[in-house]
Amino acid sequence: MVNKQWVFLLFIFLINFLFKLVYIAEPSLWYDEIISVKDTLLDFGHIKHEAEWDKNPPFYHYVLWVWCKIFGISVFAVRSMSAFFSALTACLIYSFTTRVSDKSKGIFAVIVFTLHPYLFYYAQEARCYSMLIFLIMIDLFLLLRLVEKPSNVNAILLGMVNFLIFYTHYIAGIVLFCQFLYLLFIFKVNFKHLLLTYLTPVLLVLVRFTAKQYKVIFLSGESSRQKANVPLSSFDGLFNALPKLFFSNLIFIILLIMIIYFLYTQKDKIRSINSMLYFIFLTPFLSLFILFTLGFITNVFDARYLIFTTPFIVISMSQIFPTRSIAIGFLILIMCFELLELKFISSKKMDYKFAANLARDIEGKKKMPIYIQSEDVVTLFMYYYDFQAFKLYHNNEQLEKMNLSKGDLLKALNMTVINTASDIDIGQLSMKSSFLLFQTYQKKDDELKIEKIITDLGFDVFKTRSIEGVKFSYYYKNTRKN
To answer: Are residues 461 and 336 both part of a single domain?
Structure first.
């Protein structure tokens, strides 16, 4: 029996892992992902200081650093770790759901999880979200263990994973607050065990966090880019976020009604058998309410920041239907929504892979001057344009041995980085006969200033094209103007 269960878990893992590797390297890396790649080239001890700048905790980057030392930093390698953790999570969701209910509900949950389009997207991205969901499931198992067998060891283990969740994503700390409410008011855990559960992560935070990380959490304001990407809460934003987590607004409403009905009709059964269902049912909605409310004050309300609630949503869906036939019907409905939204090759917001290939095609055998706006994306362009140069650019030790600066390397590649119009060396640019310009994160007024400088120097645009997230322009000197 045990061997059959392990074989079935292996089957779930392989199906999930292989499914999420399909076309995983096809879309270009984008800005957030190249930060992850760059961090793998740092010294291990320097990663936490890079996290201060990135405004994200460093645990994911530590794990990715180890992964990439084994598998390299190709697009396939860096993204495959997310697929790996997603596949492990599928096994944990099946095991957990089976443990709190039965095998058929476990199968229900793992099917919904596997085809979840939003989770599939982040299973193919080199960011922390798949690993975060994996840690949430580990946390659920340890919470169940503490509920079933209260002990100091179980409380400390739960506290350690609580810390790792917070050390992976600050906003996921909301789930720890929901857990605290459950242990205090519903399960009514022994005070000593409650203290150990939350004193452990507090002590670890004091040991591991730097002063700048505290500033990021409590004092740091939002950058203009974050404000643009994550606006303040609105009901339009809420109605756009719900389908990403719950497949559609309709399913969100159905699930909410069914959970209320289930809790009302089965409350005596839940109290006597498994009070953890309260925690599982209520956490997604409480987390949604908390983040939506905070989003009116600061720019934090975004569906991806609530991705830690998806295991709770999936498990909840498997529990609430009174008969198997109703559950099967609802599963078919969910699968229809999932399959309609599932995309094997998803947009990653900016396509510097295509941009770099375009530059090489235009250049032919002769390297043309390349201007890149802004500094934030130069390494993303370099990753696809000259991979060896990308690795050297982030290897300070090797640059020192070669007596080169990063500026020297850019010059050797005939590349110039500009952030604003004032960064343009007019004398240098006036000597060019042609050049390529790639722009991302440019502001309209600054874009107009750059364009005016270029045209005043006698350049005409031969070709301009908007690639996904990138504006490309090919300028040449019009000698008739001079």
So the answer is: no
